[in-house]
Design a protein that fits this description.
Layout (H helix, E strand, L loop, with lengths): L3 H4 L4 E7 L14 H13 L4 E5 L12 H15 L5 E4 L3 H9 L4 E4 L9 H8 L2 E5 L17 H18 L7 E4 L8 H9 L1 H5 L6 E2 L5 H7 L5 H13 L4 E4 L2 H14 L1
Helix pairs in contact: 2-3, 3-4, 4-5, 10-11
Bound molecules: 6-hydroxymethylpterin-diphosphate.
Length: 266
């Protein structure tokens, strides 16, 4: 596997396909595996560098699903894709990651940053996969209950620095890892904005940064709008301009167009 910075040059778009009934913004839209696989292929045609397939919602308040249910949701989608497009698996479970990697996934996107399942690091290391380590305060069920930080940017960075060291200690080469501030995972609107404004604090760790601001409730709170397309594109461009490499988004084509222009200007 070539280093993640070469495989995903800045900016790269990660399209989101949630195979869940209850996801934050696209819940229920991709429950049918044919529809989900079609959406994933279309995202790549629209310019996504990778598509993030997930079978468990992590929206605030959600309780989680069993490994069996997660496998039941994602495996038929991965089988239909047949390893023909670059796929990331959004999971914290080793069995789900293993099933996805066997079906051609190249990146494991773990919102628990290897704290959820003690077997996951070994699965990633053995497969030689890429890994995204994300910051989350608490767990989805409770994470939005009065989030407080002294200094959100440095606390998130120091957490990710520790998780990066852990991953490397487990045999996952640093050059395969990217880091994510975890927009919306135990953060207020002000925290989310500050994390993007001060992305340099995360970049100082020397790893590429992934940002997922697309359709998150902070954008709804800021704009008062229910249509979060323009807000999501603006957030992606702002994150890119502050140094983000991978933008995780639901609306691929408009984000790719906006980043093409922002990149050309930069
Ligand atoms: N956000 C969500 C899920 N996975 N992974 C990373 N690395 N970064 C993120 O910001 C991130 C993520 C939540 O958004 P969404 O997929 O739209 O909703 P849900 O978790 O309800 O499926």
């Amino acid at each position: 596997m070539i280093p993640i910075v070469e495989r995903f040059p800045r900016p790269s778009v990660m399209g989101v396909v949630n195979v869940t009934p209850d996801s934050f913004s696209d819940g229920g839209a991709h429950l049918d595996p044919d529809v989900a696989a079609g959406a994933a292929r279309r995202m790549v045609e629209e310019g996504a560098a990778i598509v993030d397939v997930g079978g468990e919602s992590t929206r605030p308040g959600s309780a989680g699903v069993s490994a069996e249910e997660e496998l039941r949701r994602v495996v038929p989608v991965l089988d239909r894709l047949g390893g023909e497009i670059p796929v990331s698996i959004d999971t914290s479970k080793a069995v789900v990651a293993r099933a996805a990697l066997e079906r051609g996934a190249i990146l494991v996107n773990d919102v628990t940053a290897l704290r959820g399942d003690p077997e996951l690091a070994g699965v990633v290391a053995e497969a030689g996969a890429y890994l995204c380590l994300m910051h989350m305060r608490g767990e989805p069920r409770t994470m939005q209950e009065e989030p407080r930080y002294q200094d959100v940017a440095s606390e998130v960075a120091s957490f990710l620095e520790q998780r990066l060291a852990f991953a490397v200690g487990e045999g996952i080469p640093e050059e395969r890892i990217c880091l994510d501030p975890g927009i919306g995972f135990g953060k207020t609107v002000a925290h989310n904005l500050e994390l993007v404004r001060r992305l340099d604090v995360l970049l100082a760790l020397g790893r590429p940064v992934l940002v997922g601001f697309s359709r998150k409730s902070s954008l709804q709170k800021l704009t008062g709008s229910d249509d979060l397309l323009a807000a999501s594109v603006a957030a992606a461009v702002a994150a890119f301009e502050r140094g983000a490499t991978i933008l995780r988004v639901h609306d691929v084509r408009p984000t790719v167009d906006a980043l093409t222009v922002a990149g050309a200007i930069a």
